[in-house]
């Protein structure tokens, strides 16, 4: 594989491990745990893996002894996130440090490869090609949901064939929920297979009291902030455009909030606030139009507006519309599929309740169509395909026109549109993500050696230098509650949305007026791999404020 000069130099970076797991470890068991809510239900559903203790590792005084060789399988699940390759190299180095004869198998293209027995053995030749690189291309990823007994049984066949006694699932909240279900099942049937999860997602919504952040969030937000910063410099140089910038993050607005804290834009919409304040689409449009009008009165017809990808689903009225559309398409999907393309809009309007039909009718055709298209495998509307940035800028332009007539606005409005998502998901991991991911993987090997199952690899104290991070394991059931999914109550890991009383949001809220009324842009610049620690090893602002 031909490498760029940067890739070649970066390959030799040795991620720093927390000191506790860099030699022989002692396992310290905490108190038994309980789930965050719905304890009785979750306990009943996970009789073999509920209530396990938290685990922390401490550095043992003795030298590391060679253990028995172990064969481990690994799966990358869901969307790409920078650092996945380092999790895998961490697992590889971890199990080799237990015994050089240990083997690592990667299942191809996500959970589907596990069920269909598609795999490769990951040898040092392969692993060394991928150290410190972005992407998931070492084995590929996929969104097959691993949740049915026959999938678990089918997977067990290949585990038995390859003599694999532990499986590491690298994924987001849904994939880790499924890891817990799989761990419980294998324990129940005495399969002798441990299951360990690793917290991945650029969206940053897999976090809680015990998992400080998911990997990939740091790098992805740094990539987006660099580019937004560049746009802001351009914007402030030409002073003639409004940039509407949509940022990935399926549901939560952590990415938009983090970028806002890094770049200080003129406006940043936070979906969770829109929902909490019961705002309409019109309210959001007015909020932006007011900022544009205020700046125009100062002679500034330029600015930057950050929009979270998931916004549309957080607008309460549209949320209700989507819920009814989901039911409608679930019950009359076959009939809908037969309707000619140019009649589908009318069909939907005729089949919706009066209120929702009115809202559906008011949406631009493209957005309305997207809401009625196929769902992803988890039943979600594919929000990344909805051009919210264009929808908002069109509506703002219209509103400004009305304000002009009323004598409330006198300026020029030239919008440009951007969507940043895929650009950041496979970037080479920042030092933070390179270290964090390697530590998560190596720590997963320590959890395997400790003999536990149904645990998530946990590395904490992340605002300290990486050698001082604390490694351990958290029972996945501890993060669970019951939620309604596809009409059924299911045990799931609670998704972390932006907390409106949390320090990152409060910091943003205290500054946003100043950022709207002035031009306070920050230019974070590109990720740096070498240089002063305050430049190269800085964490996200979100982690900084959460730990302040
Ligand atoms: P994960 O939660 O699986 O990590 O994926 C997150 C994400 O990147 C979202 O931000 C985005 O909405 C979605 O994946 C896009 O999905 P796809 O990769 O299927 O286009």
Q: Would you write up a description of this structure?
A:
The chain has helices at 5-10, 39-45, 84-98, 111-115, 124-130, 149-161, 173-188, 217-238, 254-263, 271-276, 281-297, 311-314, 316-338, 344-351, 354-362, 365-371, 388-405, 422-425, 431-449, 503-517, 533-536, 541-547, and strands at 25-32, 53-59, 71-76, 103-107, 119-121, 166-171, 194-199, 242-247, 267-268, 303-308, 415-420, 455-460, 470-475, 480-485, 488-493. With 548 residues, it is α/β, with parallel strands linked by helices. Strands 1-2-13-12-7-6-3-4-5 form a nine-stranded mixed sheet, sandwiched between helices. The chain has a four-stranded parallel sheet with strand order 9-10-8-11, sandwiched between helices. Strands 14-15 form a two-stranded antiparallel ribbon. Helix 3 (84-98) runs parallel beside helix 19, helix 11 (281-297) packs across helix 17 (388-405) and helix 13 (316-338) crosses helix 15 (354-362). The longest helix is centred in the middle third of the chain and has 23 residues, at 316-338. The chain is globular. The relative contact order is 0.17. The chain binds 1,6-di-O-phosphono-beta-D-fructofuranose. Residues 78-79, 81, 172, 201-203, 248-250, 309, 383-384, 425 line the site of 1,6-di-O-phosphono-beta-D-fructofuranose.
């Amino acid at each position: 594989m031909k490498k760029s000069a940067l890739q070649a130099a970066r390959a030799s970076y040795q991620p720093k491990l927390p000191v506790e797991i860099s030699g022989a470890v002692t396992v310290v068991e905490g108190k038994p745990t309980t789930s965050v809510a719905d304890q009785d239900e979750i306990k009943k559903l996970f009789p073999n893996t509920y209530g396990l203790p938290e685990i922390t590792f401490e550095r043992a005084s003795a030298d590391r002894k060679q253990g028995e060789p172990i064969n481990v399988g690994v799966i990358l699940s869901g969307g790409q996130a920078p650092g996945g390759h380092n999790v895998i190299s961490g697992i590889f180095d971890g199990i080799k440090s237990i015994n050089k004869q240990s083997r690592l198998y990667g299942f191809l293209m996500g959970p589907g490869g596990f069920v269909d027995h598609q795999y490769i053995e990951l040898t040092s030749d392969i692993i060394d090609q991928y150290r410190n690189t972005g992407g998931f291309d070492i084995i590929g990823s996929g969104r097959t949901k691993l949740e049915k007994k026959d999938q678990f049984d089918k997977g067990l066949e290949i585990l038995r064939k390859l003599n694999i006694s532990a499986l590491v699932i690298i994924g987001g909240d849904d994939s880790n929920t499924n890891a817990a279900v799989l761990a419980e099942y294998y324990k129940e049937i005495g399969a002798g297979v441990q299951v360990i999860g690793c917290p991945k997602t650029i969206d940053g919504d897999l976090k809680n009291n015990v998992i400080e952040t998911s990997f990939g969030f740091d790098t992805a937000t740094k990539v987006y902030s660099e580019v937004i910063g560049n746009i802001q410099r351009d914007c402030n140089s030409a002073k003639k455009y409004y940039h509407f910038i949509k940022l990935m993050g399926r549901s939560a607005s952590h990415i938009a909030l983090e970028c806002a804290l890094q770049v200080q834009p003129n406006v940043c919409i936070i979906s969770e606030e829109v929902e909490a304040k019961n705002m309409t689409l019109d309210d959001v449009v007015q909020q932006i139009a007011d900022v544009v009008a205020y700046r125009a009165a100062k002679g500034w017809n330029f600015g930057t507006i950050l929009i979270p990808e998931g916004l549309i689903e957080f607008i309460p009225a549209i949320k209700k519309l989507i819920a009814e559309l989901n039911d409608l398409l679930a019950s009359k999907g076959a009939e809908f599929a037969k309707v000619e393309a140019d009649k589908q809009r009318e069909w939907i309007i005729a089949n919706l309740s009066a209120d929702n039909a009115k809202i559906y009718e008011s949406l631009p055709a493209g957005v309305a169509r997207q809401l009625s298209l196929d769902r992803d495998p988890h039943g979600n509307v594919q929000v990344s395909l909805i051009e919210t940035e264009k929808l908002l800028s069109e509506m703002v332009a219209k509103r400004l026109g009305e304000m002009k007539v009323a004598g409330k606005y006198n300026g020029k409005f030239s919008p440009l549109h951007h969507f940043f998502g895929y650009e950041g998901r496979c970037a080479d991991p920042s030092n933070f993500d390179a270290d964090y991911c390697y530590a998560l993987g190596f720590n997963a090997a320590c959890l395997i050696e400790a003999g536990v199952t149904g645990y998530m690899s946990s590395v904490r104290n992340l605002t300290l230098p990486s050698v001082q991070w604390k490694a351990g394991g958290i029972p996945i059931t501890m993060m669970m509650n019951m939620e309604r999914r596809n009409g059924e109550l299911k045990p799931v890991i609670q998704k972390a949305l932006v907390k409106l009383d949390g320090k990152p949001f409060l910091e943003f809220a205290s500054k946003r007026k100043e950022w709207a009324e002035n031009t306070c842009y920050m230019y974070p610049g590109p990720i740096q791999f070498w240089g002063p620690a305050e430049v190269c090893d800085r964490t996200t602002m979100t982690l900084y404020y959460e730990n302040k």
